Amino acid sequence: MWFVRFVSSSIGKKLIMGATGLLLLLFLCSHAAGNATIYMGSEVFQSYADELHSHPLIVLVFSIIVLLLFIIHIALGLYLFFENRLVTPSRYAVDKKQAKNAFAANTMPYTGLLILLFVLVHVFGFTFSPREIPISITVKSTLSGIFYGMFYLVSFAVLAVHLSHGFWSMLQTFGVNHPRYNTLIARLTYIVPAVFLLIFGGIPLYFMSGAGASF
User: Fold this and answer.
1) Nearest 5 degrees, angle CA 159-CA 160-CA 163?
2) DSSP 8-state class, residue 36
3) Which of 48, 71, 74, 139 is deepest in the core (most CB within 10 A)?
C-alpha cells in the first residue's frame, strides 16, 4: 500500500513531521492571538474565552485534532532523533547542512518532552478548572504565583529554543531554501520564537510584576 510505504520511508516521516509541525505552529498562532487579549484587560479576555467555549463541540473536535498532532509529532520526532543517533558516529556530530543553532538541534527531543509536560500541566490547570470561577480570575491567581509563573516563563523559553530549530527544519523539509531568501529565513528562525516568547512569556511577567494588578 502506497501510504504504508510513504510513512515507512525517511522522506515520508520527515514530511509528516514537517506537516504536523506546521499545523501545530498555526495552532500556536491562534492561541497566541487569543492569549494576547489578556493585555487588553480581564473583560476582553473573558469575552474571548466565553465565546470560544460557547461552541463546546468545535472545541472538543479541535482539541482532539491538536492532541493527535502532538502525539504524531512527538513520536516521529523521537524516532527520527534516535534513528539519526544510530547512524551518526558521534552524538555531538552536527550535519553541516543543519542550522547554525546546534544546541537547539541537539536538544530537540528533550525540549519537546518538556513542552509536552507543560501542555499537560496547562490543560489540567486551566481546561479542567472549576466552571463557576471565571477563567480570567483563574489565570490571574495562577500566574501571579512565583512557582507557576516561573514554570510558565521557563516553559515558553524552552518552546522558543525548540522553535528556533523546528521552524528552520520545517522550511528545509518543504524545500524553502534559496540564496536570495536564506538570510531572511535565518532571521526568522530567531524572530518567530522571540515573538511567541514575548506574547506568552510576557503573561506571567505581567502578573508577577504587578503590572496586571487591575486585571
Assistant:
1) 85
2) G
3) 139
